Amino acid sequence: MTNEELKIKLTELVPSAVFEEGGEWITAFVDASNWKTIAQQLRSNEDFKFDYLFCLTCIDWKTHLTMVYHLTSTIYRHSLIIKAKLDRNDPEIETVSDTWRTAEFHEREAYDLFGVKFLHHPDLRRLLLTDDFNGYPLRKDFEDPVNMIKL
Amino acid sequence: MSDENKINNGFTKVSPPTGGGDKEGAFPGQVHPTAGGGILVSKLDEVINWARSNSLWPLVFGTSCCAIEMMSTASAKYDWSRFGFEVARATPRQADVIIIAGTIVNKMAPVLKRLYDQMPDPKYVIAMGACATSGGPFFYNTYSVVKGADHVIPVDVYIAGCPPRPEALLHALITLQEKIKSGATREQIKNGIGN
Fold it and tell me: What does the alpha-carbon distance between residue B12 and residue A39 come to, in Å, rounded to a whole number?
């Protein structure tokens, strides 16, 4: 499916989606509150069939956090980017690890480095840092006077 | 010819080895040829240092990109086994030198210390590349990189570069060999052997 058709079909599925222009793939901002149903639709719907989540990450804009999901379909070979804005003080979003299994590790990493809580995740704990690490290092306001020497 | 044969009981005379104590890299000590062989005169420390430096077995320890350069030094084109680093051991119990090729992060530091403690004396350390020397490109603004492997274990030779070329690593290995022969490594100074 081309980008235009994808945009139309996506607006049918999620009427409140906001599209961002520019770039090779369509970028759609969705609401974090009904992300679960949207994700399941994206996976199972015959038009979309997005069965490969190839990147799950988080961006820290200083006022809020944004979750970014990169999806592609191995059947139709089209790709899509979904972004969801999260509140900085209480970042929570539904997990997609039961839709795409790879999200288990990616969400653990996002929890580890940004502090985003994934609701109903089967095993949410730190992945890369040590278990007793305090703080979330990839946030912009992370301070570590012992290790970090500011340039 | 017949006189020499009589002296040597009929065997053909073989010239004895001549020690070259003043030549570079040659076996230290002087050989005084006598009938039936020769007598080697040398300082025992010099012989031990010479033997140790020419047969250092490195421990396989590559954490980052410098490991690629170390691998290419070990392989056919640059080949460090010309210098005696023939066998790279996977276990620290059988290794002499640990070449820290790569970044040391906070999680890796106790592992590095444990490997160093498991190596038997005499042991030597080479810090390869900018990350192992001083933290390298990760010196500023990082929460996880140890700023130099010498915060964890004592280092004998530092190599600059990011990553250093295989020739630079070979130069460092030769420098370590010369350091051992001259008795100036940390371990030798601590034990008072060598010079």
Answer: 91
Complex ipTM: 0.76
The answer as to whether A133 is a domain residue is no
Domain assignment of residue A63, given as a range: 3-91
Tokens coding A72 = 């592609």
Tell if the CB–CB gap between B141 and A149 is shorter than 8 Å: yes
Per-residue burial over B140-162, b = 16 or more CB atoms within 10 Å of its CB, e = otherwise: eebbbbbbbbbebbebbbbbebe
Q: Fold for domain B56-171?
A: Rossmann fold (3.40.50)
State how many domains chain A has.
1
Q: Can you give the pLDDT at residue A58?
A: 92
Scored b (16 or more CB within 10 A) or e, B26-62 reads: ebbbebeeeeeebeeeeeeebeebbebbeebebbbbb
Q: Across residues B129-149, what is the average pLDDT?
A: 90
Contact in structure between B137 and B107 (CB atoms under 8 Å): no
| Amino acid symbol at B109 | A
Provide mean pLDDT across the span A1-12: 82
A37: domain CATH number?
3.30.460.80
In this complex, is the C-beta atom of A139 within 8 Å of any C-beta atom belonging to chain B? no
Interface check A138 vs B, CB under 8 A: no
In the predicted structure, residue B22 carries a pLDDT above the cut 60: no
**Residue A72 DSSP SS3:** strand
Looking at the complex, does the CB of residue A29 fall below 8 Å from at least one CB of chain B?
no
Can you tell me the distance from the alpha carbon of A109 to that of A116, in angstroms, rounded to the nearest whole number?
9
- Calculate the alpha carbon distances from A82 to A30, A35, A110 in Å: 7, 10, 16
pLDDT at A134: 86
